[in-house]
Write a structure and sequence with these properties.
alpha/beta, 5-stranded parallel sheet, binds zinc ion
Length: 314
């Protein structure tokens, strides 16, 4: 039984684990919490638990678990149309009709509603009867970031699981692993800004990786084949700490990879460096950057890494 991929939320996991062990999962869950609270992770875990064939579901390894996690299980359907503002009564009715066709390969037929708060009132009403009395193999998982906006008649038919923010103690080890280049102060700051909603916190940390001005400087110098400017930029980089140098090198490499992709037609997005250098030069620079990054990750000194690039990158 593994709900551990959902961070924090110990109470909720304890309760679900007990229900799973006793074989008394409900047929209708409402997962509530704001964006980035882990609703989607929990929904997949729950759906996997419903289809899992191991003795302690969800094992996350058996065929049905894998299919649910990869989003390809034929008996687990998402009811949504993200081109529309609301989830229509037609979609709800279609799900209601299909529910009565028995599962093709799974134990249960699971319907996920990723934004239940956007179900129109008619759509919610169309679901009332099946939420109340589904066929014995039927199950519903409703996700909502505004559960209070839903019809009370729908809410009362569901077991509501409210996601909670993740504590610093639970979040820090996870974030350190995901963002090895960030120090604890940066991780704590993101946790505070994201109020412990782990998806939101990760988004904040990723967005912090906006182009570093020094990466732009290096790229400009490289594109213009300006050896002096390149040396000066590397000299500035040399004065940084390793964990501040690595993101710059990664950004430079990403840009060069994108330029190569554009040259070979694999990417249509315009990159300013695609025409600046030849394909051979670009791929050579990518290789050098990869070597430098690898060396820095394996604890080579900053001066050593920058010195290496200063003599090789042309
Ligand atoms: Zn399994």
């Amino acid at each position: 039984m593994s709900l551990s991929t959902l961070l924090g939320n110990e109470e909720l996991k304890k309760r679900l684990t007990a229900d799973l062990r006793a074989g008394r999962l409900s047929h209708c869950y409402l997962l509530s919490g704001p964006e980035g609270s882990g609703k989607h992770t929990l929904a997949r875990l729950l759906a996997a638990a419903m289809e899992c064939t191991a003795s302690e579901p969800p094992c996350l390894c058996c065929g049905p678990c894998r299919k649910v996690l990869d989003g390809v299980h034929p008996d687990v359907a998402e009811v949504d149309d993200d081109t529309k503002k609301t989830v229509s009564v037609e979609l709800a009715r279609r799900a209601r009709t299909e529910l009565y066709v028995r599962p093709g390969e799974g134990k249960r037929k699971v319907y996920l509603f990723p934004r239940a708060q956007d179900l129109t009132p008619q759509a919610q009403n169309a679901l009332l009867k099946v939420l109340e009395e589904p066929p014995e193999y039927g199950a519903f998982i409703l996700l909502s970031d505004r559960a209070e906006a839903m019809l009370p008649t729908v809410r009362s038919r569901c077991v509501e699981l409210a996601l909670q923010p993740v504590s610093e103690r639970d979040a820090l080890p996870f974030l350190r692993e995901r963002f090895p280049e960030k120090d604890d102060a940066a991780l704590r700051r993101a946790l505070r800004i994201g109020e412990g909603w782990i998806g939101r916190v990760q988004k904040i940390l990723r967005e912090e990786e906006k182009p570093d001005p020094l990466a732009e400087e290096l790229l400009d110098a490289y594109a213009g084949q300006d050896a002096l400017a390149l040396t000066q930029a590397l000299f500035k980089l040399e004065r940084r700490k390793r964990e501040q140098m690595l993101p710059v090198l990664r950004q430079v490499r990403e840009t060069l990879i994108a330029a190569l992709a554009q040259r070979s037609g694999r990417q249509t997005e315009e990159t300013p460096f695609a025409s600046a250098r030849t394909t051979a030069e670009l791929s050579d620079a990518c290789r050098l950057l990869s070597e430098a990054i690898h060396a820095a990750e394996s604890n080579a000194g900053v001066g050593h890494v920058c010195g290496y690039l200063a003599v090789t990158l042309r």
